[in-house]
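Issue 218. Parser rejects a valid record. Input:
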Amino acid sequence: MKAIYLDHCATTPVRAEVLECMLPFLRGLFGNPSSIHAPGRTARAAVEEARERVARLIGAKASEIYFTSGGTEANNLALQGTAMAFKDKGNHIITSAIEHHAVLKTCEFLQSMGFHVTFLPVDGRGSVNLKALKKAITRKTILISIMHANNEVGTIQPVEEIGKIAAEKEVLFHTDAVQTAGKVTVNVEVLCADLLSLSAHKIYGPKGVGALYIREGASLTPLLYGGHQEKNIRSGTENVASIVGMGKACEMALKERGTESKRLENLRNLLQDLISARLSGVVVNGHAENRLPHVLSLSVPDLLGEDMVREMDKAGIALSAGSACTSEKVEISHVLSAMGIPPERARGTIRFSLGRDNTRRQIEKAAHAFVHVVERLKVLSELEDSLGKRRCY
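Output the parser choked on:
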């Protein structure tokens, strides 16, 4: 069977149109965008065109887009940059317990620097409670950072309401939109976002490039010092080829977003229905309605997610697990734990994330293979239990 890739939340393949745009800047068009001669001006023009394309994807001005090495750097710049710029005003940051580690680890670092961080809990669907958010805001709060949608279960947060709350309280609002931009509508004005993180490799662009939207007038302290690039916010010679690729990826995503989102939602629902019809006890994680159209998180009690991923991989199907088995112990995802999912269910969690190359036929094959894998693993599990063998729990 031809390999089927169903792990698009982890990364996506570079699409042909993107690669075609990048190649000239990996060959003859090698100028430094900071140079004033013709090769440099050509590179600068390409970077600025890409900046326009990225801005259009999220309804921003080109002047508000700052290129980074990816989503992780964008998140770090948003949080650390704001913290350092506003430390004289306050030292309180609000985030959620299910953020990407690029946000959580940065918040932990800031705590070590004397900042106070509130990690908001989420409900069983992975949603932040707006009342808890309002209650957490104090006169020392300088930043709220809540992801647009969760990368593990696909739950979309009420970011529009969060943005309005932040604006009313005159607190800066940052959202990690790495998993949503290009998949669903993302508009910085609608979201009332002051800062927004993006990554190219989640939307069929190259790895190693991303961007941070910084609302006009917002002040950030840079993480990197050296040159004057990106208006002194992000020093370092621009990765021109990758920036061009990101711009093209954003342009294509904006063009196809509506139709592709609906197509993926239909395929996701088909996958869910085919599996649920043949396997009893399977639980869908996340919000039933407010979720990404291409993400399906499932839990199979009494099995291990890593076992299912390995067996699906043998069948030529790539997906991801919600837990990791190390040193005879299962390390459960912080997202699933924060959602209050029982350990026996969290251990058996896997994630399908669909993409533009997936077809109905592939989804049918994947569903059939998954049912077969689960049935076989259950038989093996029952056999191991009868023989008294310890498994990784």
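Fixed in the parser; the record now loads. The CA atoms of residues 187 and 291 lie 17 Å apart.
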